[in-house]
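Q: Structure tokens for this one, please.
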Amino acid sequence: MIVVAGEALIDLVPQGVPTDGGPVTELPALAPRLGGGPYNTAVALGRLGSSVAFCSRVSRDAFGEALLGGLRTAGVDVSPVQRGDEPTTLAVASIGADGSAGYSFYVEGTADRLFAVPEALPAGTRAVSFGTCSLALEPGATAYEDVMRSAAAQGLCTALDPNIRAGLIPDADAYRARFKSWLASTTLLKLSEEDAEWLGGTPQEWLAAGPAAVVITRGGEGLTALTRDGGEYSVPGERVDVVDTIGAGDTVNAALLHGLSRQDALSPAGIAGLGGDDWSRLLRFAARAAAVTCSRAGAEPPYATELVGPAW
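A: Here is the predicted structure, written as tokens:
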């Protein structure tokens, strides 16, 4: 069982906006899409065929019901989900000419911010994944942090994707210091080049602080994994006509965790024991999965049957 801990929200994605640099002459229509980094990761894991549960706090409003419905459809166990009467968090996306996405958030008084530490993780949990807004917004951030430290203390595999949303971080230096404090409780650190630049430091510094491996995504240029024993493994990106990049990094998270599970390497020792061929296979699988997500609008990760080539 892989547990994904973090927020579920609604992305409001613009429809019919010029992407050729032309002027916007009227307000775009905004289409609601199920989303949130951890939510997308859980859905992608379910579609790939992993045993996965979602640990969060979700509103009882119509958006919250739709979010739970999406999880159930993907085969995700929602029994750890807490419920609240507060509204669902909203994220308004803007899509650049290259398909890249930016966000503004409506988070005040929303349900996911009030997440509380659960009494226990689901039986059979082998790994717990964290990231994005849930680690930046209090009081929930401290609760998720407590779950992370507890999971690591139990010897579970912990995955961290900071997925920086700078507009939600009032004190950048305090967040950077907090990020460094998480590394001792992190087995697998995945982040984008942009995240790495914003956070500062180097993969070697992060590895020395705790993770068994660091995976850096480079958009269409591919992925690189660096390991504590000095290994460095890179694969190119999969070429695809990009509609948008919403959910691409979350799909990488899921593909990495799914692949590690299928190799029986979903543990600190298992990740440390991977060789070059193992990493190349895993990274190529993640690159293929992310490419499918980028080929369609919104966070729509692939099903296992859509991924051609070596898998598990």
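A few notes: The first helix runs from residue 37 to 48. The longest strand covers residues 9-15.
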